[in-house]
Design brief:
Order of helices and strands: HHHHH
Subcellular location: Endomembrane system
InterPro entries: DUF1232, UCP031804
Helix content: 55-70%
Largest sheet: none
Main location: membrane
Number of strands: 0
Radius of gyration: 14 Å
Number of domains: 1
Strand content: under 5%
Membrane topology: Multi-pass membrane protein
Number of helices: 5
Keywords: Membrane, Transmembrane, Transmembrane helix
Amino acid sequence: MNGHQDPLDDKRFQRDSARVETGFWPKVRRVFGRVPFLEDAIAAYFCARDPATPFQVKAIAMAALAYFVLPTDVVPDFVAGLGYTDDAAVFLAAWRSVANHVKPDHRRQAQETLVRLQSGKTPED
């Protein structure tokens, strides 16, 4: 085994989902305006939470979002100019697998969330 965990493993999915549920919105608030793929990440979040989304798509999205949420990763987020490049690379790879499952409603929810953030509200308002 190469040490990598299969994102389609149910236990891995449960861990990733728990990490995303506790850390995603706080991270979104911290990085608002600084991460170019934030709208897509939020749309992927809503896609992964949609009961109609196939499990394998949810698992891939949650794995990428869990990596985004991690406070320490390959390139720490606080490194000026480079901090989100690894997050973007991981997310882009996952996005290629999930983008066809992101529905217009997921995008609408993401856009509405960004408007709430821009007006000083929390994503959950």
